[in-house]
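Data card: per-record layout.
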Amino acid sequence: MTIFIGGVRGDELVTTTAARTLTGRLLTTLPSVRAFAGRHRWFLVVLSFGAALRLVAMIGYRPALWFPDSYTYVVTALWPRPDLVRPAGYSMFLRLLEPFHSFGLVAFTQHLLGLATGVLVYTAVLRLRGRRWAGALAAAPVLLDAYQVELEHLLVSDTLFAFLAIAAVVAVLGPLTWRAAVTAGLLLGAATLTRTIGLPLIAVVAVCLLARHRSAPGRAGGRWLAGVLVAAALVPVAGYATWFAATYHRFGIVGSNGVFLYARTMSFADCGVMRPPPDLAVLCDPTPPARRPPSQEYVWAAGSPLVALPGITFTRETDGLAGRFALLALRSQPLDYVASVLSEMARSFSPGRPVYPDQAIYDLYEFPATAPPPPTRAPAMAGAAAAERYEDGPIGTRIVEPYAGWIRAYQDVVRLPGAALLVILLLPPAVALVRRRRGGGAGASWALPWMTSLALLAIPAATAEFDYRYTLPAVPLACLAAALLTARQVERSESA
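The structure for this 496-residue chain is written out next.
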C-alpha cells in the first residue's frame, strides 16, 4: 500500500527529508572544516608535504629497505624467542603484520608512525597553549627531514621506538593524572622492549615529574603518580625479563650489556693503566686507542679479542668477562671515559655529515641508486630465507625511477644539520635563564622533553657509540622543548 502525504509518496518524502538533512549537515560542517584548516594551515601544509615525501619513497623503493639487523628481527617475529642482543618488541610489531605478508605494509605503517609523531609534537604545543607557528616549526624536522623518511623505510626498530617514547612524554605534559601516568608508563615499557635505551628513560621521566612536583607543591599526589608511572613501565619489562630468564636462565631483557660496554671502553682502555688480572688481560688490545677502529668492531669483527675467544660471543660467561673488563676500565680511567663520551656526543652536532662509523653503515642511511645486493653472511642469509617466508615471495628492493631519483635529490639538500640541533638544544635553558634573571616566569613545561632528548643523545654515546640513526629520535623532543617556550600563560600558571 502506498501512502501519499500532500500529493507526495511516503517513501519519496523520507528520501527527500534524508537528503535535506544530509545537505544541512554538510553545509553546517564545511565552514567548521574551513575554519579548522585556516587555523592550522601551516601545519597542514607541512604534514601534507611530509605525506607526499613518504609516498614518493614507497613508490620509488619497493617494498622496503634492509638493514643488517632486519633479518634477526624477522626470524624472531616468525619464531618468537628472546634475542640475546636486541629485545623482541619490534619483532612482535612485525608479527602483528605478518598475516598480510607484506614488508611494504610494514614500511607504510612506519611512515604513518612518522607522520603521527609530527602530529603528537604539534598537538602537544597547542595543548599547552603554545603558538601554532611554533608547533608547525617543531613538527617540521620529523615530517620533512629526508633521513627521517629513509629511517622509516628501513626495517629497523627506531621509528617504532621514537613514536612510543615521544607519545609517553606527551602523555604527561600538562596536568598529571593517574590515567596519564599509567599510559606513559606502559608506553615507556613498550619502548624499552623495542630498544633497551628506553629503560633509563623511565628514570629520566620519573625524575622530571618529581622535580615538577617539587616546584609546584600544590599538586596533590605528584610523587605517588610518578611511582605509578614507574610501576606501569616495569610491568611489561618484568614480564619480558621472566620470559628471558626462562629461556637463558639469567634475568634481564638482553644478554649483551657487558659485551657492548666492553666495546665502548675500547675507545680509551689502556691495559698499562688498568693492570687487569690474567683472565681479563686476554681482552686487551695493544693498539694505541687513537688508532683503534670504531667501538662496534669489537663486538662483530673477527679480529676483536672478545670475538676471538672460544664459543659464542654472547654466552653468559663471555658477557660477564667483558662486563668485568669494562667496569675495571671505568674505574681506572674515569676521565678518559668522560672525554670519550663527550667526543661521541659531539658527533651529533657536527656541521657536516662525516662518514661514521664506517662507509658501509653510513651508506645504509642513504637512499641507494642501485638495488642493494643480497646478504652473504650465514646468519643474514638464514634471516633472508625467513623474510621470504614472511613476504611469501622475493624480498629484494626494487628501485623505480624517476621517483627514487626524486627522493635521492631531496635527501641531498634537505636535512637538519647537527649544528642546528645544537642550537635547538641550547635555546630552552638559555631562554629560561634570561627570563628568570629578568624576573619573569621561566616555566618548566620544556624541561621534560628537553631532558629526554638529551638522554637519547647521551645514553648511546655512554654505552655504545654514536650512530646517525640514534640521533633522529631525539630531534622531535628537542624541537618540542623549544616550541614550548612560547607557552607563556600556561607556564606561569604551572609555576604559580
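Known properties of this structure: The first strand starts at residue 4 and ends at 5. Confidence is low (pLDDT under 50) at residues 2-8, 489-496.

See the next section for split statistics.
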